[in-house]
Amino acid sequence: MTEPLNTIERILSSEPPVEPSAHFTLSVMEAVRIQSSDSAFTFPWKRFALGCVIAALLGAFASLAVSWRPFRGGAGMALPVLAVSLALLVSFASVRLSEALVTSDFD
Amino acid sequence: MHDLATGAAAKASYVTGDLLSADADASDAASVLRGDTSAFERIVRRWQGPLVTLAYRFCRNHHRAEEMTQEAFLKAYRGLSSWRGTTPFSRWLLALAANHYRSRMRRFEPESIEWDEGAAVASHSSPEADAERQEVVSAVHRAVAGLPPKYRDLVILYYFHSSDLSEAAASLGLREGTAKARLHRARLLLQNRLKKIVA
Known about the structure:
By secondary structure, chain A is mostly helical. Chain A contains five helices and no strands. Chain A is 75% helix and 0% strand. Chain B is globular, with a radius of gyration of 18 Å. Chain B starts with a helix and ends in a 5-residue tail after the last helix. The interface between A and B is large, with 36 and 49 residues.
């Protein structure tokens, strides 16, 4: 039973290192120099677009809430409860989004 | 038991490193942050071997491994200011690279990756024996590549770190206990998938 595992272990633990090709360092440094001379701090268009979408959705919701009859007609606690729920939801989503952006690619 | 002696002898100290290398990394990183781009070249030269090796173990294609490594270096260059001196530079860099490789592998269709033929295995008694061994080696690598990502990533990093579970767990941001359980499960999966080939 342990024989196949021994073989697998042996194969995986004895794998030799891989050598990069001769021009690899130059190629990386060229990319680094282009990046540093270009613009190290590019405008985060993706995040900007995401922010715009979220702002538009919130704006749409707010205008709907103002104009929609049940809210206007004094629906008692419905509007505050909904607003608080939405605020919590947006906070939670923004925290998760920040975490995802920090741990994932910045490209 | 597996060949512990070989594993111990081959133990690469990528993370603990020698103190000179750790000092050099810290000093070069500080130079880069002061605006000396050329200091980054020394970091690249010191780390290109391990990073290309790790990338290759993920994608099994030399060209793609270099591409992924270059991206990882660029990412490290951009994010160098986020390195805190409290953790070894090597651990920070390897975790960043591993994270990038995993993310890239998620975007590849497995079929789109063209595997390099494995390096020729050490000569055995006959060409037939060599060919047979090559086949087994290839089957093992394919079985690892075919594992669900959470097991595959751990197996790759565990053997990359010369069977050091704590370093593999640190590279993946896992608790050691979780990594241990996951590795156990991964081994069972590999054993089941390979029992007909590796007998």
